[in-house]
């Protein structure tokens, strides 16, 4: 049974409490779409695929075909369709057990949207809960250099039956702010009582406590803006 739909007791509608996640997969080496995006100005969109026997057929759209043709690691297309302002590429290749999209699909997780930009595969997933998102990230371990959850929209029904949704967009944080938050969290800075103080975390990051405080305050302010903007 799903998490949303009608209540089994009174038949009333209940709000779904699943998540919408934007996942960025860095360092995939066997994906023509990712390879094409390394030379393409702007995202590669319209990504679709299908499987038949031992063949994986993949299709995508690009506005700069010359860039795609120059990109290394992109196999010769099985067919190409010109649509005026963009070109559709289609490739046939052997089914690959390390294909990120196939791994996710085998977890019974449909992919709502797929695109690639600057060598990063960007996927949008609709999942029943956060545990399912953890399963996806764990399954991709070893097939990519890094898997990043760039944003998360989580729905949770309030007592009045109205869905209260929170958007967390990690893309607003700088790499340094993410590192500071991650290190502080890992070391127990946010625990009560704390397992580490500001100086402990600053030392681990090899920065001054005042610099740690500045990065932490900036990151927390951005996250609070995301969480409280609609309230």
UniProtKB/TrEMBL annotation:
Per the record, the domain of life is Archaea
Q: Is-annotated flag, keyword Transcription?
A: yes
Q: What are the UniProt keywords, alphabetically?
A: Transcription, Transcription regulation
Q: Which residues form the DmsR-like N-terminal domain?
A: 16-154
Check the UniProt entry and state the signal peptide residues, or none. none
InterPro entries reported for this sequence: DmsR-like_N, HTH_bacterioopsin, WH-like_DNA-bd_sf
Q: Name one Pfam family in it.
A: DmsR_N
| Name the record gives this protein | DNA binding protein
Q: What is the lineage of its organism?
A: Archaea, Methanobacteriati, Methanobacteriota, Stenosarchaea group, Halobacteria
């Amino acid at each position: 049974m799903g998490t949303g739909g009608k209540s089994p007791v009174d038949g009333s509608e209940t709000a779904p409490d699943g998540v919408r996640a934007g996942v960025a997969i860095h360092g995939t080496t066997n994906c023509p779409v990712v390879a094409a995006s390394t030379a393409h100005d702007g995202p590669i969109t319209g990504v679709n695929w299908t499987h038949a026997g031992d063949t994986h057929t993949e299709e995508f759209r690009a506005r700069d075909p010359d860039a795609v043709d120059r990109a290394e690691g992109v196999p010769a297309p099985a067919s190409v369709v010109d649509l005026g302002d963009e070109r559709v590429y289609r490739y046939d290749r052997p089914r690959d057990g390390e294909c990120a999209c196939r791994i996710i699909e085998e977890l019974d997780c449909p992919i709502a949207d797929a695109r690639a930009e600057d060598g990063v595969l960007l996927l949008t997933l609709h999942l029943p809960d956060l545990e399912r998102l953890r399963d996806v990230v764990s399954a991709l371990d070893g097939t990519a250099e890094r898997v990043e959850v760039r944003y998360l929209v989580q729905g949770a029904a309030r007592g009045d039956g109205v869905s209260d949704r929170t958007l967390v967009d990690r893309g607003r944080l700088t790499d340094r702010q993410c590192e500071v938050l991650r290190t502080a969290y890992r070391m127990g800075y946010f625990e009560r009582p704390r397992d580490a103080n500001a100086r402990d975390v600053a030392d681990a990051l090899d920065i001054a406590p005042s610099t740690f405080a500045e990065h932490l305050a900036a990151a927390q302010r951005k996250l609070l803006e995301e969480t409280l903007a609609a309230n």
